[in-house]
Write a structure and sequence with these properties.
Radius of gyration: 58 Å
Largest sheet: 3 strands, antiparallel
Number of helices: 11
Order of helices and strands: EEEEHHHHHHHHHHEEHE
Structural class: mainly alpha
Number of strands: 7
Distance between the termini: 100 Å
Helix content: 40-55%
């Protein structure tokens, strides 16, 4: 940014200073004049040259603008208020011509007609409209405020009776829904033809809903099923051969029956020994070094018979 008067850019040596009157940015060279600003402070403050010339001049710049005519008329109306306007009601010439030569009964009917056509009559209130509606319905007089009459009778049923009624209503609604389902109807007809004794409009959901099986029967069925599975497992385990996994001959025969080649697991030389604990084949030198280095001197080692 730069000074608004001389155009010098602000930097470390030329700092930005603001004029308190016009709020513009100037350098310290352009704000040498000082003057009092009554609206800001009582002391002299630095201002720009333009503000200094405007504040120091004693020329009255105010221009006398005459007030508008509408403002003057309002003042006159406040000082001398006018009288309220006089309303003149004009008679209808058609009604006067009709009234002449009529009988007394016809004139009364004409007066009632004029009252009905009267536009200045205020509209009826809400209470009057309610009273008129109540009289047309043939009821009692309208009473303001909330009524204490109970619309619904209190429910004196027990909780069990309420639950039974809700369940019965749900079953009836479900039967109505199934009655409009053609697939359920066809299944019910097929069941009756086969002699299964199934009611029409009764699917699997409704049959389960009507079923009254107890929880004890379900628990007995589950327990019996578990016992049958345990007995079946015991029979299968008794038929298996009882061979000990710790028998060296059994492990050696099992290993020799594998399709693996008889090579040492470390140097690929011909295997001479079989470690039952490591389950690997070793030659003479590797067998001694491996078990001595790992400290596994208690491993069971058998002689490997190459097939």
């Amino acid at each position: 940014m730069s000074c608004n008067h001389c155009g010098t850019k602000f930097n470390f040596f030329h700092k930005e200073i603001g004029c308190l009157n016009c709020k513009l940015s100037f350098c310290h060279k352009c704000l040498k004049q000082k003057i009092k600003i009554p609206s800001k402070s009582d002391q002299e403050v630095p201002v720009c040259r333009t503000c200094f010339s405007n504040l120091s001049s004693n020329v009255n710049m105010a221009v006398n603008i005459p007030p508008p005519d509408a403002y003057l008329k309002r003042l006159e109306d406040l000082e001398n208020p006018a009288r309220p306007p006089i309303t003149i009601y004009k008679t209808d010439k058609k009604m006067e011509t009709l009234r002449s030569g009529l009988s007394l009964a016809d004139q009364q009917l004409l007066d009632r007609l004029e009252k009905l056509k009267d536009k200045d009559k205020p509209p009826p209130s809400e209470d009057e409209i309610r009273k008129r509606l109540n009289s047309l319905k043939g009821g009692n007089e309208y009473v303001e405020g909330p009524s204490n009459t109970q619309v619904f009778a209190p429910d004196t049923r027990t909780d069990q009776e309420k639950a039974d009624s809700i369940l019965e209503m749900f079953i009836k609604e479900r039967d109505i829904e199934l009655a409009h389902n053609p697939e359920e109807g066809i299944e019910a007809r097929l069941a009756t033809l086969r002699g299964q004794g199934v009611r029409p409009n009764e699917g699997a959901y409704i049959s389960n809903l009507h079923d009254s099986g107890s929880d004890d029967d379900e628990v007995d069925k589950i327990t019996k099923k578990i016992m049958d599975e345990v007995a079946l497992d015991n029979k299968c385990s008794n038929r298996l051969p009882k061979e000990s996994m710790s028998d060296p001959e059994y492990m050696d025969d099992k290993f020799n029956s594998s399709p693996e080649l008889g090579w040492c697991a470390l140097c690929n030389e011909d295997a001479k020994y079989h470690c039952l604990d490591c389950e690997d084949l070793y030659c003479n030198s590797c067998n001694v070094q491996v078990h001595k280095m790992w400290g596994d001197t208690d491993h069971r080692i058998t002689e490997y018979k190459q097939q």
